[in-house]
Protein backbone atom coordinates (compact mmCIF):
# COMPACT_ATOMS: atom_id res chain seq x y z
CA UNK A 1 0.00 0.00 0.00
CA UNK A 2 1.17 3.52 -0.78
CA UNK A 3 0.22 5.03 2.61
CA UNK A 4 2.74 4.81 5.42
CA UNK A 5 2.25 4.47 9.14
CA UNK A 6 1.37 7.75 10.82
CA UNK A 7 0.57 9.61 7.62
CA UNK A 8 -2.21 12.14 7.11
CA UNK A 9 -4.55 11.38 4.18
CA UNK A 10 -6.84 14.22 3.08
CA UNK A 11 -9.66 14.02 0.54
CA UNK A 12 -11.23 17.19 -0.80
CA UNK A 13 -14.06 17.72 -3.27
CA UNK A 14 -17.78 18.29 -3.53
CA UNK A 15 -20.89 16.47 -2.25
CA UNK A 16 -19.63 13.12 -3.52
CA UNK A 17 -16.81 13.37 -0.99
CA UNK A 18 -18.77 15.30 1.66
CA UNK A 19 -21.67 12.87 2.16
CA UNK A 20 -22.80 14.36 5.45
CA UNK A 21 -19.39 14.60 7.10
CA UNK A 22 -20.34 17.75 9.07
CA UNK A 23 -23.66 16.47 10.46
CA UNK A 24 -24.69 13.37 12.38
CA UNK A 25 -22.33 11.34 10.18
CA UNK A 26 -19.28 13.41 11.17
CA UNK A 27 -16.40 13.30 10.62
CA UNK A 28 -16.27 10.86 7.70
CA UNK A 29 -19.72 10.92 6.09
CA UNK A 30 -21.32 7.82 4.60
CA UNK A 31 -19.91 7.84 1.07
CA UNK A 32 -16.92 6.43 -0.80
CA UNK A 33 -14.47 8.20 1.53
CA UNK A 34 -15.70 6.35 4.60
CA UNK A 35 -15.97 3.06 2.71
CA UNK A 36 -12.39 3.45 1.51
CA UNK A 37 -11.17 4.38 4.98
CA UNK A 38 -12.89 1.32 6.43
CA UNK A 39 -11.52 -1.03 3.77
CA UNK A 40 -7.97 0.23 4.23
CA UNK A 41 -8.25 -0.04 8.02
CA UNK A 42 -9.60 -3.59 7.80
CA UNK A 43 -6.98 -4.70 5.27
CA UNK A 44 -4.03 -2.94 6.92
CA UNK A 45 -4.79 -2.70 10.65
CA UNK A 46 -1.08 -2.32 11.38
CA UNK A 47 -0.98 1.03 9.54
CA UNK A 48 -2.24 3.94 11.65
CA UNK A 49 -3.52 6.77 9.46
CA UNK A 50 -5.25 10.09 10.07
CA UNK A 51 -8.10 10.39 7.57
CA UNK A 52 -9.47 13.87 6.82
CA UNK A 53 -12.63 14.49 4.79
CA UNK A 54 -12.82 18.02 3.42
CA UNK A 55 -15.61 17.63 0.88
CA UNK A 56 -18.24 20.37 0.72
CA UNK A 57 -21.52 19.85 -1.07
CA UNK A 58 -22.00 22.05 -4.12
CA UNK A 59 -18.36 23.04 -4.46
CA UNK A 60 -16.66 23.93 -7.71
CA UNK A 61 -12.96 24.50 -8.18
CA UNK A 62 -13.62 28.18 -7.36
CA UNK A 63 -14.84 27.17 -3.91
CA UNK A 64 -11.76 25.03 -3.38
CA UNK A 65 -9.63 28.06 -4.15
CA UNK A 66 -11.37 30.04 -1.41
CA UNK A 67 -10.80 27.43 1.29
CA UNK A 68 -7.54 25.85 0.09
CA UNK A 69 -5.28 27.36 2.74
CA UNK A 70 -7.52 26.38 5.64
CA UNK A 71 -8.67 22.97 4.46
CA UNK A 72 -5.51 21.73 2.73
CA UNK A 73 -2.32 23.68 3.38
CA UNK A 74 -2.91 24.16 7.11
CA UNK A 75 -3.65 20.44 7.51
CA UNK A 76 -0.21 19.43 6.15
CA UNK A 77 -1.34 16.20 4.46
CA UNK A 78 1.12 13.53 3.36
CA UNK A 79 -1.39 12.46 0.69
CA UNK A 80 -3.96 14.71 -0.95
CA UNK A 81 -6.82 13.38 -3.06
CA UNK A 82 -8.76 15.89 -5.16
CA UNK A 83 -11.94 15.06 -7.06
CA UNK A 84 -13.66 18.18 -8.37
CA UNK A 85 -15.41 19.33 -11.54
CA UNK A 86 -18.87 17.80 -11.48
CA UNK A 87 -20.55 21.03 -10.33
CA UNK A 88 -18.31 23.12 -12.57
CA UNK A 89 -20.07 21.39 -15.47
CA UNK A 90 -23.50 20.69 -13.97
CA UNK A 91 -24.24 24.32 -13.15
CA UNK A 92 -24.38 25.10 -16.88
CA UNK A 93 -27.21 22.58 -17.31
CA UNK A 94 -29.29 23.60 -14.29
CA UNK A 95 -30.84 26.74 -12.85
CA UNK A 96 -27.54 28.39 -11.83
CA UNK A 97 -25.62 28.72 -15.10
CA UNK A 98 -23.80 31.81 -13.82
CA UNK A 99 -21.99 29.53 -11.36
CA UNK A 100 -20.63 27.20 -14.03
CA UNK A 101 -16.85 27.31 -14.32
CA UNK A 102 -15.44 27.66 -17.86
CA UNK A 103 -13.02 24.93 -18.78
CA UNK A 104 -10.01 27.23 -19.07
CA UNK A 105 -10.64 28.56 -15.55
CA UNK A 106 -11.16 25.01 -14.29
CA UNK A 107 -7.82 23.96 -15.77
CA UNK A 108 -5.77 26.90 -14.57
CA UNK A 109 -7.26 26.81 -11.07
CA UNK A 110 -6.89 23.08 -10.55
CA UNK A 111 -3.31 23.15 -11.82
CA UNK A 112 -2.42 26.06 -9.53
CA UNK A 113 -4.02 24.46 -6.47
CA UNK A 114 -2.15 21.19 -6.90
CA UNK A 115 1.12 22.99 -7.49
CA UNK A 116 0.59 25.10 -4.39
CA UNK A 117 -0.21 22.06 -2.25
CA UNK A 118 2.91 20.18 -3.31
CA UNK A 119 5.18 23.18 -2.89
CA UNK A 120 3.77 24.09 0.53
CA UNK A 121 3.42 20.64 2.08
CA UNK A 122 5.42 18.15 0.00
CA UNK A 123 2.32 15.99 -0.26
CA UNK A 124 1.79 13.25 -2.82
CA UNK A 125 -1.28 13.59 -5.05
CA UNK A 126 -4.27 11.52 -6.10
CA UNK A 127 -6.58 13.02 -8.73
CA UNK A 128 -10.07 11.73 -9.43
CA UNK A 129 -11.78 12.69 -12.66
CA UNK A 130 -15.20 14.31 -12.67
CA UNK A 131 -17.88 12.05 -14.14
CA UNK A 132 -21.42 11.94 -15.46
CA UNK A 133 -23.13 8.56 -15.31
CA UNK A 134 -24.62 8.59 -18.81
CA UNK A 135 -23.82 6.07 -21.57
CA UNK A 136 -24.79 8.37 -24.46
CA UNK A 137 -21.57 10.15 -25.33
CA UNK A 138 -23.50 12.71 -27.41
CA UNK A 139 -25.56 13.83 -24.42
CA UNK A 140 -24.51 17.50 -23.96
CA UNK A 141 -23.70 17.23 -20.27
CA UNK A 142 -21.80 13.97 -20.79
CA UNK A 143 -19.81 15.49 -23.65
CA UNK A 144 -18.93 18.52 -21.55
CA UNK A 145 -18.04 16.37 -18.56
CA UNK A 146 -15.70 14.32 -20.75
CA UNK A 147 -13.82 17.47 -21.70
CA UNK A 148 -13.29 18.37 -18.03
CA UNK A 149 -12.27 14.81 -17.22
CA UNK A 150 -9.64 15.04 -19.95
CA UNK A 151 -8.28 18.17 -18.26
CA UNK A 152 -8.09 16.37 -14.91
CA UNK A 153 -6.21 13.48 -16.53
CA UNK A 154 -3.74 15.86 -18.15
CA UNK A 155 -3.07 17.77 -14.94
CA UNK A 156 -2.65 14.53 -13.00
CA UNK A 157 -0.01 13.43 -15.50
CA UNK A 158 1.79 16.78 -15.27
CA UNK A 159 2.05 16.45 -11.50
CA UNK A 160 2.95 12.76 -11.44
CA UNK A 161 -0.26 12.14 -9.49
CA UNK A 162 -2.03 8.84 -9.13
CA UNK A 163 -5.12 8.93 -11.37
CA UNK A 164 -8.51 7.54 -10.40
CA UNK A 165 -10.51 7.52 -13.62
CA UNK A 166 -14.00 7.49 -12.18
CA UNK A 167 -15.63 8.10 -15.57
CA UNK A 168 -13.97 5.03 -17.07
CA UNK A 169 -15.08 3.00 -14.06
CA UNK A 170 -18.70 4.07 -14.40
CA UNK A 171 -18.59 3.50 -18.16
CA UNK A 172 -17.62 -0.09 -17.51
CA UNK A 173 -20.45 -0.51 -15.00
CA UNK A 174 -22.92 0.96 -17.50
CA UNK A 175 -22.29 -1.97 -19.83
CA UNK A 176 -24.05 -4.11 -17.22
CA UNK A 177 -26.61 -1.88 -15.51
CA UNK A 178 -28.30 1.45 -16.32
CA UNK A 179 -27.42 4.81 -14.75
CA UNK A 180 -30.24 4.52 -12.23
CA UNK A 181 -28.51 1.51 -10.69
CA UNK A 182 -25.60 3.73 -9.67
CA UNK A 183 -27.07 7.23 -9.21
CA UNK A 184 -30.73 8.28 -9.53
CA UNK A 185 -29.73 11.69 -10.94
CA UNK A 186 -26.65 10.40 -12.80
CA UNK A 187 -24.41 12.31 -10.37
CA UNK A 188 -25.05 11.50 -6.71
CA UNK A 189 -24.34 7.78 -6.19
CA UNK A 190 -26.38 5.40 -4.13
CA UNK A 191 -24.51 3.00 -1.89
CA UNK A 192 -23.65 0.79 -4.87
CA UNK A 193 -22.10 3.72 -6.71
CA UNK A 194 -20.14 4.79 -3.66
CA UNK A 195 -18.93 1.21 -3.21
CA UNK A 196 -17.73 1.23 -6.81
CA UNK A 197 -15.87 4.50 -6.21
CA UNK A 198 -14.29 3.16 -3.04
CA UNK A 199 -13.10 0.00 -4.77
CA UNK A 200 -11.64 2.02 -7.62
CA UNK A 201 -9.72 4.25 -5.23
CA UNK A 202 -8.63 1.15 -3.29
CA UNK A 203 -7.21 -0.51 -6.41
CA UNK A 204 -5.22 2.68 -7.08
CA UNK A 205 -3.60 2.91 -3.66
CA UNK A 206 -2.71 -0.76 -3.28
Order of helices and strands: EHHEHEHHEHEHH
How many structural domains in the coordinates? 1
| Coarse morphology | globular
The proportion of residues in beta strands is 5-15%
Q: What would you say this structure looks like, in words?
A:
- It is a single chain.
- Helix 3 runs parallel beside helix 5.
- The chain is an alpha/beta fold.
- It has one domain: Rossmann fold (3-Layer(aba) Sandwich).
- It has 8 helices and 5 strands; from the N terminus they run βααβαβααβαβαα.
- The longest helix has 19 residues.
- The protein has a 5-stranded parallel β-sheet with strand order 2-1-3-4-5, sandwiched between helices.
